[in-house]
Specification:
The protein is an alpha+beta fold and 307 residues long. The protein has 3 domains: 9-85, Helix Hairpins (Orthogonal Bundle), CATH 1.10.287.90; 92-198, Cupredoxins -  blue copper proteins (Immunoglobulin-like, Sandwich), CATH 2.60.40.420; 205-303, Orthogonal Bundle (Cytochrome Bc1 Complex, Chain D, domain 2), CATH 1.10.760.10. The protein has helices spanning 9-40, 56-84, 190-198, 208-215, 257-265, 289-303, and strands at 92-99, 102-106, 112-113, 116-119, 124-129, 135-139, 144-148, 154-158, 164-170, 182-188, 241-246, 249-254, 271-272. The protein starts with 8 loop residues before the first helix and ends with a helix. The structure holds dinuclear copper ion. The site of dinuclear copper ion has 8 residues, from loops.
């Protein structure tokens, strides 16, 4: 018997196929009737048009039957949707942040991961959070999708039924790299999960700056390897001469700690030539003074490496 990858998969599929079957029935039925009308009432057979009015029986029929059909569709949809909003008390809570443009998953013990690891057969509640624009957490295999609106609390819950790795996508157009906003959810046994859960995420002190850059999705737009993405690469940044535009005027600045700080807090002030303004939000409420120090230290350490 088909079980589905989550506790909701079966219900969503039956609601979908119910509506799909009705749609197919009407698509085929209406097409046949239309063709029959075209043949039967064509101008050669009926040169003179005739007005038909007031057929009570017919009017009642074409009102009542569609009403019953749409109410059935509504019932099916609602019956499947309602339990999606009723979270069981024992659900494990994970905070999900969707930002331009990556996902991160924060567990009760403070562990932060770019992959959603969950134990099979256990209820999980995802608290959804966006710091910038509207995203939508979509796990197609689980048949669940929920919008994440900045400033508004939202959540979803489910029970993963089958071990395996499934795709997580963003289903709300959120800017240039929307299509790259993906992650994986890995459903494992309880033992494997407990082992993973207890493992420390390794952060070596020198890499703290890099960890901050990655956790804030900076590296989704600024590559580390020199390739050009939405923003300029981080490679060779520290101490380099930058040609920037400020209020339409070109000037050259040195990428020192002051420049890097400015670029994080007021990204639109100076735009590196060849890149578009308005692509990056100001990170003044997200990245602290200490974070900036760590980021600068990271860039500085990179500049000392041999090429
Ligand atoms: Cu986030 Cu599309």
């Amino acid at each position: 018997m088909f079980q589905g990858a989550s506790n909701f998969a079966k219900g969503v599929d039956s609601a979908f196929f119910f509506i799909f079957a009705i749609s197919i029935f009407f698509l085929v039925g209406l097409t046949i009737v239309m063709i029959w009308f075209m043949v039967h009432y064509n101008r050669k057979r009926h040169p003179k048009a005739e007005q038909i009015k007031d057929n009570m029986k017919l009017e009642v029929t074409w009102t009542v039957i569609p009403l019953i059909i749409v109410m059935l569709m509504f019932y099916y949809g609602y019956a499947v949707f309602k339990p999606m909003r009723q979270v069981p008390d024992d659900a494990m809570v994970v905070k999900v942040t969707g930002r331009m443009w990556n996902w991160s998953f924060e567990y009760a013990n403070g562990k932060i991961s770019n992959e959603l690891v969950l134990p099979v057969g256990k209820a999980v509640k995802l608290n959804l959070f966006s710091p910038d624009v509207i995203h939508s957490l979509y796990i197609p295999a689980f048949r669940i999708k929920e919008d994440m609106v900045p400033g508004k609390d939202n959540y979803m819950w489910f029970i993963p039924n089958i071990e395996g790795t499934y795709e997580i996508l963003c289903a709300e157009y959120c800017g240039l790299r929307h299509s790259f906003m993906e992650a994986k959810t890995r459903i494992v046994t309880e033992e494997e999960f407990q082992k993973w859960f207890a493992e420390e995420t390794p952060i070596v002190p020198e890499d703290k700056g890099l960890a901050i850059l990655q956790n804030n999705a900076c590296t989704s737009c600024h590559s580390l390897d020199g390739s050009k993405l939405v923003g300029p690469t981080f490679k060779g940044l520290f101490g380099s001469e930058r040609l920037v535009m400020e209020n339409g005027v070109e000037k050259t600045v040195t990428a020192d700690s002051t420049y890097i700080k400015r670029a994080i807090l007021e990204p639109d002030k100076e735009i590196v030539k060849g890149f578009a303004p308005g692509m990056m939000r100001a990170y003044d409420k997200v990245i602290t003074e200490d974070d900036i120090k760590a980021i600068v230290a990271y860039f500085e350490s990179q500049s000392k490496l041999p090429n």
